[in-house]
Amino acid sequence: MQTGVLVSLALYFLLMLGIGLYAWRKSTADSEGYLLAGRNLSPGVAALSAGASDMSGWLLLGLPGALYASGLVEAWIGIGLFVGALVNWIVVAPRLRRQTEALGDALTIPEFLGNRFPSHAVALRLTSAVIVVLFFTVYTAAGMVGGGKLFEMAFGGDYMTGIWITASVVLVYTMIGGFLAVSLTDFVQGIIMFGALVLMPLVVMFGEGGSAGGSIAAVPQEGFLSLTQGLTVVGWLSAVTWGLGYFGQPHIIVRFMAIRSVADVPKARWIGMGWMAICLAGAIGVGLAGRAYVERNGLVLGDPETIFILLANALFHPLVTGFLYAALLAAIMSTISSQLLVSSSSLTEDFYRLFLRKSAGEREAVNVGRLCVLLVALAGIAIAADPESEVLGLVAHAWAGFGAAFGPLIVLSLTWQRMTGAGALAGLVTGAAVVIVWVWRRWDAAFMGGPGVYEILPGFVAAWVAIVAVSLLTAPTAPSTEPTPAD
């Protein structure tokens, strides 16, 4: 069993490293190549890269686990995410691709904001860069925890060994190959995830020896297949408003900046949304059919989020099980690599070249970027070293923090010319602050004696109001078409 699984995983790791070497030879000569692949991603690569870096291990662990435990009502989160992603592709993608190039050829989201609002450039770039690095360090740690626990549960190995293996492979191809390596590995990882999420629910439901076909309805839980069982208005809002987070996730929207042209955006949108729809349906199927399989066979599953791993072990040939583990690692690694590179780009472009070395050349900037990838990864490993830490629980808070801080800011900066630098800074700070206070006061868990409200909703609304109000009270300034100076 172990040999076949290890062969599949070894082939997967070698493929990732090979892509990293290819990208190193192709597009790491300057900052634009290392950080944005020369703005030359094809629609398919941009679409699957955005999807794979978005979904992470949540798609194969968290969502199936939620469906397994509570039933179809948990699908509202997936529905909200799908709608949010679609609007993001329609509203943000073409405008961000066009404006980031037109306004000083910005390579990072903070740099774009600085060029869009030159009167507050330094404050915007520094504040947003700090938020990006801090939140993504935690995000990175969460992914590494997932990698460590996969090796621990699947092979009975050491937790920290799993973290180091996961981190090492990601570090090699990200450091040497930059954004092109991250995007191409995301593309391959997206295909692997797609295959796994189509294959597994079909085998569970109709495969020989493990058939649960038709028995999902027989799960002994009231309303298991109902979209409304036990659902309140507050609960529904908290689920569907996850989709608001898309507008402010730097590791996702940076793909829009790197796509080959604005004309390619519609094709990328439909590729990406088709991939997402099928993957979400597959993840829902894994959770529902997996619960039916466990009930039908009298099994005991302590952690619902391990249903994917249980089914991979129970129903498939070892080589296929290895492929399914690779799909889970793909979900984890695609997100880690994207977060590392976005954090590195902010440290390099929005701190090092802005404050420490304004005259840094392209080769120096690329090398500093590689060093920053390593530093952020080491910080993530340090946080992830405690398997009992609550870092995985912080992922939802980090998603909300990015969504509230950057979401209204990105949408309005792209669509509303009257917006000012003061309004932008007010929205950035307000969104982050409301999320932090909401979580600190535990209003996400209990609000007015009832169910909690997910913090992204009040944070997003407060940031939007702050941007509009402050912008209307301050004088507008013209966007800069030149890179922002440090002083």
UniProtKB/TrEMBL annotation:
Keyword Ubl conjugation set for record: no
Gene Ontology MF terms: L-proline transmembrane transporter activity; proline:sodium symporter activity; sodium ion binding
Swiss-Prot/TrEMBL keywords: Amino-acid transport, Cell inner membrane, Cell membrane, Ion transport, Membrane, Sodium, Sodium transport, Symport, Transmembrane, Transmembrane helix, Transport
Annotated transmembrane regions: 6-24, 75-93, 122-142, 162-182, 187-207, 227-247, 268-294, 306-332, 365-385, 391-414, 421-440, 452-473
A Pfam family reported for this protein in Swiss-Prot or TrEMBL: SSF
GO cellular component: plasma membrane
Superkingdom, taxonomy of origin: Bacteria
UniProt-annotated location(s): Cell inner membrane; Cell membrane
CDD domains: SLC5sbd_PutP
Chief location: membrane
One of the protein's GO biological processes: proline transport
UniProt key word 4Fe-4S: no
Membrane disposition: Multi-pass membrane protein
Catalytic reactions on record: L-proline(in) + Na(+)(in) = L-proline(out) + Na(+)(out)
Family in the record: Belongs to the sodium:solute symporter (SSF) (TC 2.A.21) family.
Biological role: Catalyzes the sodium-dependent uptake of extracellular L-proline.
Record-linked PANTHER family: SODIUM/PROLINE SYMPORTER-RELATED, SODIUM_PROLINE SYMPORTER
Stated name of the protein: Sodium/proline symporter
Lineage of the species this protein comes from: Bacteria, Pseudomonadati, Pseudomonadota, Alphaproteobacteria, Sphingomonadales
Gene name, Swiss-Prot/TrEMBL: putP
